[in-house]
Amino acid sequence: MKSYPVGELTSNFPNILELVQKGEEVEILFGKNKKPVAKIVPLHPQKEGERKLGILKGKSKVTFAADFKMTEGE
Prior knowledge:
single chain, alpha+beta, YefM-like fold, 3-stranded mixed sheet, 3 strands
């Protein structure tokens, strides 16, 4: 979880919202002692083990050797 003081939060709000959209929780710090006062969390958090499909589309390639063979049982 990342933490931001109020001043930094207001100046970087669009970037911080992008982090929240990606599932990150953001803590808001306030006062001279920068104590946590609030937390911004995703509205629809990702479930444990849930992965976004197609994240590597176009970034990887799978090829098989010319002598690769597979039996019906495999």
